């Protein structure tokens, strides 16, 4: 597949619209940096859980003429003229989101999942209200009470966690804390929990204490879209989703809500927390949502989960302990301390060989947060490139060799070979 450079008429290979003569003439330093980034990607294996590849069609939408359109407001209610086609693009994205997730209402304007969470709080809460969410130490996101984030400064958070015995969410603790603190909202979902939350149980607890239920589903949005994970939409008052990560759209957020909360959600996005929408991103989201409704995408999501299970099994065989004993999703969180290394050291050794993963603090972790005892991995990118269970089992072995003290050079050679065999591919769209 090829993409034509609108400025020069030249043709670049898929995924390289930045490699244009216009950019090289205007800013050779940035052009060289982008070329170096492409080379870095071609020589490494990307296992960071929050990253993925955007599809060729999404990339085309992002660089289209809507990038220049200022469209403050909502379709039919813009603050500027000339928005008829921008309105049509946003309405397509809204309709596709509602259909894909069976949601009464969708807002496609949030610029990130974190800004979508801010809007969810703004729609439902007032400063000082109590919120019950997964603690940061057990996998909660910064927007679930970190004092360095707006959430921890504006609201009174109480954290729930997982059981030490099996790593699963302790619903008895959630219920007890809800009864004790009577929060205005309960947040279900995390950034590193590899199992499906029990949305119905969270709904039951929220109803018991007359709280709103917010589903934090940014990590698993794509699996929910593909019907490979249970949907929170029938249970949550507001669902916070991401359009990048596994969904493979532009970096951005998405809000799904009940019809009763539609106006409050929309006003919380604009004008409360954002100005004019990035209409090229909205168009890109529309494309990603259409692609996510296809059988090819659903097959991709199934492969991402199967690959994660193969990766978890390979790490376990090498002596690392996957949290909860495995995974239901594309995420794997594993304790590397049995091999005598910290998560930070594991991250450094793997990065030196071209294997990119992230250190991760674990529940009940005795190690300092800066070092941590765990690593967090995701299979979104490598599955988009066409890797499967065989390759991910091999990758688990390469990680094990590095953490056991093998030299990085021979492992790096195999990483480059493996990465090169799949560079440029895009599977599932």
Key attributes of the depicted protein:
429 residues; disordered N terminus; globular; alpha/beta; 2 domains; 7-stranded mixed sheet
SSE layout and pairings?
Layout: E1 2-4, E2 11-13, H1 21-26, H2 28-42, E3 45-46, H3 56-62, E4 70-71, E5 73-74, E6 77-78, H4 84-101, E7 105-107, H5 113-124, E8 130-134, H6 150-154, E9 156-160, H7 171-181, E10 185-188, H8 199-208, E11 212-216, H9 221-225, E12 238-242, E13 253-257, H10 262-273, E14 277-278, H11 279-292, H12 295-317, E15 321-322, E16 331-335, H13 343-352, E17 355-356, E18 358-360, E19 374-378, H14 380-384, H15 389-403, H16 408-422
Parallel strand pairs: 3-17, 8-9, 8-10, 10-11, 11-12
Antiparallel strand pairs: 1-2, 4-14, 5-6, 7-13, 12-13, 15-16, 16-19, 18-19
Helix pairs in contact: 3-11, 4-11, 5-10, 7-8, 12-15, 15-16
Please explain how this structure is put together.
The protein is of the alpha/beta class and 429 residues long. The chain has 2 domains: 65-292, Type I PLP-dependent aspartate aminotransferase-like (Major domain) (Aspartate Aminotransferase, domain 2); 295-422, Aspartate Aminotransferase, domain 1 (Alpha-Beta Complex). It contains 16 helices and 19 strands. The strands form 6 sheets. It has a 7-stranded mixed beta sheet with strand order 7-13-12-11-10-8-9, with helices on both faces. A hairpin with a 6-residue loop joins strand 1 (2-4) and strand 2 (11-13). The longest helix is centred in the C-terminal third of the chain and has 23 residues, at 295-317. It is globular, with a radius of gyration of 22 Å. The two termini are 12 Å apart. The model is unreliable at 1-15 (pLDDT under 50).
């Amino acid at each position: 597949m090829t993409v034509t450079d609108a400025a020069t008429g030249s043709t670049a290979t898929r995924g390289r619209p930045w490699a244009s003569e216009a950019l090289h003439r205007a800013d050779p330093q940035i052009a060289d940096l982008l070329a170096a980034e492409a080379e870095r990607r071609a020589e490494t294996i990307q296992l960071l859980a929050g990253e993925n590849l955007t599809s060729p069609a999404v990339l085309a939408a992002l660089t289209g003429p809507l990038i220049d359109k200022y469209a403050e407001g909502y379709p039919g209610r813009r603050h500027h003229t000339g928005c008829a086609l921008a309105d049509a693009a946003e309405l397509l994205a809204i309709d596709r989101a509602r259909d894909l997730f069976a949601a009464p209402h969708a807002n496609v304007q949030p610029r990130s999942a974190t800004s979508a969470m801010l809007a969810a709080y703004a729609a439902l809460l007032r400063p000082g209200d109590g919120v019950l969410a997964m603690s940061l130490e057990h996998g909660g996101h910064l927007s679930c009470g970190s004092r360095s984030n707006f959430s921890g400064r504006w609201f009174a958070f109480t954290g729930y966690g997982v059981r030490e015995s099996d790593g699963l969410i302790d619903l008895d603790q959630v219920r007890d804390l809800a009864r004790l603190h009577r929060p205005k909202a309960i947040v279900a979902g995390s950034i590193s929990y590899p199992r499906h939350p029990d949305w119905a149980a969270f709904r039951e607890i929220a109803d018991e204490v007359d709280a709103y239920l917010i589903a934090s589903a940014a990590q698993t949005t794509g699996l929910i879209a593909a019907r490979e994970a249970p949907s929170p939409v029938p249970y949550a008052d507001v669902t916070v989703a991401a359009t990048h990560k596994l969904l493979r759209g532009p970096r951005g957020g998405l809000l799904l809500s009940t019809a009763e909360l539609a106006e409050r959600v929309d006003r919380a996005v604009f004008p409360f927390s954002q100005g004019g929408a990035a209409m090229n991103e909205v168009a890109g989201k529309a494309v990603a949502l259409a692609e996510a409704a296809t059988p090819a995408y659903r097959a991709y999501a199934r492969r991402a989960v199967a690959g994660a299970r193969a990766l978890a099994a390979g790490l376990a065989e090498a002596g690392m302990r996957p949290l909860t004993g495995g995974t239901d999703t594309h995420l794997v969180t594993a304790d590397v301390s049995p091999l005598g290394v910290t998560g930070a050291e594991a991250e450094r050794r793997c990065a030196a060989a071209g294997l990119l993963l992230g250190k991760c603090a674990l529940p009940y972790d005795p190690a300092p947060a800066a070092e941590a005892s765990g690593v967090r991995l995701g299979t979104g990118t490598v599955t988009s490139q066409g890797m499967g269970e065989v390759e991910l089992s091999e990758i688990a072995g390469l990680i094990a060799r590095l953490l056991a003290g093998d030299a990085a050079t021979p492992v790096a050679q195999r990483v480059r070979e493996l990465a090169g065999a799949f560079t440029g591919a895009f599977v599932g769209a």
